Predict the structure.
Amino acid sequence: MLLSPVQARKLVTCCIREKCALLAVNADSPSAIYDCLKAAKGSNAPVIIETSMWQLEGISFGAGDPVRGMAQYIAHIAILANSEEFKDVPVLYHTDHIRGPLTREILLSAVRGLPLTLFGGEIVLHPSTISLDAAKLTPEKNINMLCSLIEASEAAGKPVTLEMEAGLDGGLTTEDETRELVMGVEENHPGYVVLFAPGLGNRHGYSKDGYPGFKPENVSASAALVKELTGRDIGIVLHGSSGLSDHQVQSAVANGLTKMNWSTSGLIIRSGAAKEYYAVNADKIVPGHPEFKDLAMDSGQGSYVSRRFVPELKKLFSLLRSEGKGISFMKEIISTS
């Protein structure tokens, strides 16, 4: 089931308490979204499906219009996540790398609600959780942007749940930087920042040499600091997990990691499997061959990619210790809603 912003906070609380982490997958096609839900159901795990600007503007969704792309993306997830097949899977939709001159416009639209008019009626779509790309923002602009989203949510009477990102590609986020960022929002709008993504010694993207500067104890130190500052638990987020070893991921979870973003490795797996599919079937995907239509249609390539992708997601659910927790978390969230 696709969770609301208020339900999303409860899911994060469950993960902090149970010392497990949410897998957040950047999925850039309808088939990738389905594979995420299939893997989560197979592992009985909660899952976050998130988008960056390039997914929202991509041909599968907004085709150049990121606001339209977000509405289409949320509607697509909602139809699947609320279906009989996946109703017991806790699913969040999260905005990830939203950046550039349209950032404010896109996210304010998301907070106020994205209307979908059909047959004279209207439903309003919302992300479960929201973040923005802070890589090129000063701390002041980062704080102001999040505060403006909170103020818009309060004015519209719409709940919002936020992840705050530090400039994490610049190395370790210092205590002073953490204090400035977190308290810049918390002092005026307490309780809205539920997740915090500091620099932990890794970077976005893929590193074939891994991230030797990444230390799992940086996670526990960040968690302790934000709790000291705010008086409550805030989930720590790992951006840039592609290239980390299984041991590093497990150690990060043991040290209090609550959410792990996963994108580049997933793209490598999916594009590599698609490349292999067309190479293996090149002599059959020609007019006149008896298997042409079955192989040329989307379901042929999609099923082939899925068989490579889904097992990798299940492995990650296990590493993050979220495997086996989906149904119990869902029951708890619904009972307290």
Observations:
- The chain has a mean pLDDT of 94.
- The chain is about 50% helix and 15% strand.
